[in-house]
Write a structure and sequence with these properties.
It is a single chain. With 307 residues, this protein is α/β, with parallel strands linked by helices. It contains ten helices and eight strands. It has helices at residues 35-48, 64-80, 96-109, 139-149, 169-182, 195-207, 224-234, 240-246, 253-273, 288-296, and strands at residues 24-29, 55-58, 85-90, 113-117, 153-158, 186-191, 214-218, 278-282. Strand 4 (113-117), helix 4 and strand 5 form a beta-alpha-beta unit. Helix 4 packs parallel to helix 5 (169-182) and helix 9 (253-273) runs parallel beside helix 10.
Length: 307
């Protein structure tokens, strides 16, 4: 009889040869508007916190009450968890002095990481953006303003499929270069569903001489119709194959959830196989899908010490 063939186990795509954790993740949340939303947010934070994300970010709106909710959420993360919060900040509807006050308040609260964004027009994405009189002109200007006040870490946005207000991807990359020159050290991308968009964009960014990490933004599809509408407003494309995956499931929530998990798993596995090790998840304040994908990526809560 012939000898049994020798099968060499494939090394895990998620763990390095020395057993170290290769995958790093961050999670994005938005500040809650109601008590019920607050409960959902904190249930999600508590569920995801044991996965030890690199940081968690909290989005920021253009209104005063929204800003206060962002600050309150960031402060609670600092006070009640071991997570590292990154506070979003935009240029919209405020003077430089007003924004500088927010920056200083974050620093005084203990925030050491700010996500600097131009922000959307007050009237929504369909409205043409115009800088506030006396305010920061754009994302690069805001990054420079933050760095003048404090040497905190600054992350920024990137757009594999072009920002809706930009005429070309090259114009976006020029702005990214300006943000890096101003002091940004990381970019998180707008979500995308076709990984080739990300890699083509990454090639152009590197050819431009931009060396900072370009972390792919991942949006697990909690609700396909909402995701499609959101993508249209953000300038992100929704491939036909993705629509077909959810076709006929409008009244079948259980199957939609399984399909959503499979789609997200397929996307991140392909990215890892092509060399990606860092991911930024848009959680929509819900943990289940994100937790499942992170589990697939090999992330586990630390084992509790025996009593």
């Amino acid at each position: 009889m012939s000898a049994e063939p020798t099968i060499t186990p494939r090394p895990s795509r998620f763990v390095g040869t020395g057993g170290e954790r290769r995958i790093r993740v961050s999670f994005e949340f938005f500040p809650p508007k109601t008590e019920e939303m607050e409960k959902t947010l904190w249930e999600s934070i508590k569920r995801l916190a044991p996965l030890r994300p690199n940081f968690v970010s909290v989005t920021y709106g253009a209104g005063g009450t929204t800003r206060e909710r962002t600050h309150a959420t960031v402060k609670r993360i600092l006070d009640e968890t071991a997570l590292t919060p990154a506070a979003h900040l935009t240029c919209v509807a405020a003077t430089c002095d007003e924004i500088d006050t927010v920056i200083r308040s974050y620093c005084e609260a203990g925030v050491r990481h700010i996500v600097a964004l131009r922000g959307d027009p007050v009237g929504g994405l369909g409205e043409r953006y115009a800088p506030h009189p006396g305010g920061y002109a754009n994302g690069a200007d805001l990054v420079a303003g933050i760095k003048r006040i404090s040497d905190v870490e600054v992350s920024v946005s990137a757009y594999p499929e072009r920002h809706p207000d930009s005429e070309t991807v090259e114009a976006d990359i020029d702005m990214l270069a300006a943000k890096v020159d101003a002091g940004a050290t990381r970019a998180m991308t707008q979500f995308f569903f076709d990984n080739d968009h990300y890699f083509r964009y990454l090639d152009r960014v590197r050819a431009r001489g931009i060396a900072i990490p370009i972390v792919p933004g991942i949006l697990p599809v909690q609700n396909f119709k909402q995701t499609k509408n959101f993508a249209a407003r953000c300038g992100a494309s929704v491939p036909d194959w993705l629509a077909e995956r959810f076709d006929g499931l409008d009244d079948d929530a259980a199957t939609r959830k399984l399909i959503a998990a499979a789609v997200a798993a397929e996307q991140v596995t392909d990215l890892v196989d092509r060399g990606v090790t860092d991911f930024h998840f848009y959680t929509m304040n819900r943990a289940d899908l994100v937790y499942a994908v992170c589990h697939l990526l090999g992330l586990r809560p630390e084992a509790k010490e025996a009593a």
